Every structure is written in C-alpha cells, then in structure tokens.
Amino acid sequence: MPKIVSIGTAVPRYAHKQEDIMRFMLDAANPDEKNRKLLPILYKRSGIETRYSVFSDFSQLRGNWHFFGNNCTAPSLEQRMKLFNEEVVALSEKSIQDCLQGTDIQEITHLITVTCTGLSAPGLDILLAEKLNLPANIIRTSVNFMGCYAALHALKIANAFCKADASAKVLIVCTELCTLHFQKSGDTDAILSSTLFADGSAACLVVGDDNAKGLNIVQFFSKIALTGQPDMAWQLSANGFLMTLTNHVPKLIKEEIGSLLDSVLTQLGLSITDVAHWAVHPGGKNILEAVENALSLSTDALTASYEVLRRYGNMSSATILFVLKEMMQNPTTKGNIFTVAFGPGITIETAMLTL
C-alpha cells in the first residue's frame, strides 16, 4: 500500500502580524466607508495571527513599500510572475530539504510540482530538476491552477505511480506565493480574500514500499458542487490573478460535506466512529466551523487545522500538507484520518489515510 513517509514545510523570510496586514490593506486599498468598518471585523474574526510573504510591504508604512510602490500601483502580471520565478525555487528547495532528511534525492523517481500562483514554461518542475541536479530522465508531472485542493490531487497521482511500481519514490512539492496577487480593490470579495492568503511550501515523499513507515493511503473520493462555480474562482488578468471568494462558500461546503462523507464511509465499510482524526483544509475559520457543524464534530477535532490557520493563514495547496505534518508529529495520532480540501468548482477532494 503506498504511503506518505515524510512531509517537509517552509515559509518565506517575512512574517507579518495580522494586524499589520490589516493596516496595510486599509491604507493601500482605501475602501469605502462600509468596507472600512467591515475590514477590521473580518481580520479580528479570521483566527489568524501571522502570515508569511516573499516581500516586506505588509509590515511597512507607506513610503517603504517596494513591490507595490508607495502609491500602491498594481504590479503587472509580468512583474508578479518575475518575482514568482525569482522566489519559488528557493522556497521549494527549503521544504524539500525538510522533507528528505536522511533520503538521497538521487533516489527520487518521480517529481510532481503543484502551484496555482505562478505559470511559466519551463516551469517549476524543470527549474527544480536543474537546481537539485535531479536525473535528466526523472518522470515529471505538473499540477497547475487547481487551487487549495491540488495537493490531494497530486497525492492521487503519486498513489497511482506507486501502485504501478512498488520501487517508486515520488516527491510532491506544493509552493504557493499567494500574496503576489493582492489587488487594490474595495470590493467586498477582494477584502475577504485579503484576510486569508499567505505564502508557503510543503513537500511530501510517497513510496510504494510495504515495509516503509508512514501514512497509508487507503482511498480517494471527490465531488464537484457545480452550484458554487461563481463563488470560488481564480482568473488571470493583466494585473495579476483575480480571486473570487464569496461568503457563500462555507454554506455550500456545509451542505455538501455530510453526503460526501457518507459516500466515503459506505464505500469503505466504515462508520463515522471509525474516523479517529480529521485533517481539514483551513481555508478560513468559517469553513472549519461549517465542517464542524455539518459533521457534529467535537470542539477539538480540528485542532491541527485551527493551529495551522492561526500560525500561517491559508497557503492554498500547501496548507493541507502543513496540517498532515502536524498530525504525523503528534504521538497520539493513530487510526483513520479523513482528509479534505476545497477549491474552485466548488471541488471537494478527499483522501482516507491511516497511521
């Protein structure tokens, strides 16, 4: 049975307190009176204390802004992608080093790169292969623009590789620089997304070796809630990537998650009492609360998810691997882990893991 044997994580050098980011947003976006009153409420309720970014602007006063300029002129798509390409390899390498402690990188047979915050060709896969001196014939796969659930999609691919070849060692790298795409907008949806997103990278090693120790991959399940298409979207524009994230998303997830879990448990011949742990993508405090309420979970069932949200914010695809790393490092983690992440579509992607 394929399994996750290790997870490594990394964040950029600039740590920003949530209240500092709020001050930046108020100054830079200059929202109307209604949203100027709303923004502090959203930040206070976010459940986030710290977020990380590849630039320092969020903790600086006007006059010391570099990436956005002192008039907060919107950087072009080209400028945003230039900084992405300058930063993404180094951050990815940090999470890979954290993941592969004790493992020779030359043993890696497959490389899967995941991102939705930067696009180029040659892409992150080739840039990393060059930087890490990986074999020229390494099998590469790129998962692009799927959003916050993409790590589970990558795990699905890695699982298939390992089932086809028990000697496979698959390295997954999820690196997201979400803060590159801050938009100077007074729109309520833009303000909502500004309270959540951050930069981070997570890498995990998946192997087919039955004797290896780690999180066993049992099964994957997914569902598309098509009625939510307008409520969560990610589009390219001349001024960067545009996020649509409405306050209807938690309600939609609450409506769908129960029936999906029932389908998962039925197919595996399990009941909800057989689920020992819950690894839920912390897309926001309201999303975690929606899952808790829909599944009638105890207040401490999502401790790892809340903790990742508090310390890092929402790092898109990398975030669920941060949650799983917390669980793997906790000696009390044992049994079935229901893992779920959400993204554009609205897509709900799940995996049942066991330790």
From TrEMBL:
Family annotation (InterPro entries): Chalcone/stilbene_synt_C (IPR012328), Chalcone/stilbene_synt_N (IPR001099), Polyketide_synthase_type-III (IPR011141), Thiolase-like (IPR016039)
Pfam families: Chal_sti_synt_C, Chal_sti_synt_N
CDD domains (alphabetical): CHS_like
Chalcone/stilbene synthase N-terminal domain residues: 4-208
Single Gene Ontology MF annotation: acyltransferase activity, transferring groups other than amino-acyl groups
One annotated GO biological process: polyketide biosynthetic process
Active-site feature positions: C148
UniProt keyword Chloroplast present: no
Keywords: Transferase
Domain named Chalcone/stilbene synthase C-terminal: residues: 229-353
The family this protein is said to belong to: Belongs to the thiolase-like superfamily. Chalcone/stilbene synthases family.
Protein name: Type III polyketide synthase
Natural source organism: Emticicia agri
